[in-house]
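TASK: fixed-backbone design
INPUT:
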């Protein structure tokens, strides 16, 4: 199957509210991006009363097939980078142990198998954190296993784990530079 357009960003949304709306702002600014939306992320969109307002040409793939059929696009070079942001502790744990039973975990797995670099914005990044819930800011206390999984994921090849919104923005800017400077 011939590629119909230049490689794009693949952005996978999970069911975390941690910097959810800010992550969508970055998606909107990217332009050449397709969005992979987990079932939980679709619920979060409704909870936060967020309108996606995505860039023109953005394809939205929802978690509706058992085999996560849209990931076949990775085999054809449709994507140069995958971003999983925000990434729940559940998603991070599944990625660490190689479970790919949802659209988002399949996107991450297939990106790895196709040597597509990944940027993962792990939500559980400190023993004590403030995060945004639909009702406002709340305190959360990630478990030791959540923090360990975040550390383990950072050791994966071609995977950059970021822990803050500023780090996410910086990693995307760096990836843009690499893409621009690569013939």
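OUTPUT:
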């Amino acid at each position: 199957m011939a590629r119909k357009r230049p490689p794009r960003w693949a952005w996978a949304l999970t069911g975390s509210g941690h910097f959810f709306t800010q992550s969508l702002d970055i998606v909107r600014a990217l332009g050449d991006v397709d969005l992979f939306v987990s079932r939980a992320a679709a619920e979060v969109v409704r909870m936060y009363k967020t309108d996606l307002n995505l860039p023109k040409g953005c394809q939205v793939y929802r978690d509706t097939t058992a085999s996560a059929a849209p990931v076949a696009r990775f085999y054809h070079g449709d994507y140069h980078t995958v971003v999983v942001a925000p990434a729940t502790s559940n998603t991070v744990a599944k990625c660490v142990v190689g479970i790919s039973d949802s659209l988002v975990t399949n996107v991450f797995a297939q990106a790895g198998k196709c040597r597509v670099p990944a940027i993962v914005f792990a939500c559980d990044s400190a023993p004590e954190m403030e995060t945004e819930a639909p009702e406002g800011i709340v305190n959360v206390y990630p478990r030791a296993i959540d923090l360990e999984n975040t550390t383990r994921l950072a050791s994966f090849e071609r995977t950059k784990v970021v822990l803050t919104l500023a780090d996410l923005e910086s990693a995307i800017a760096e990836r843009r530079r690499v893409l621009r400077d690569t013939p």
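COMMENT: The mean pLDDT is 87.
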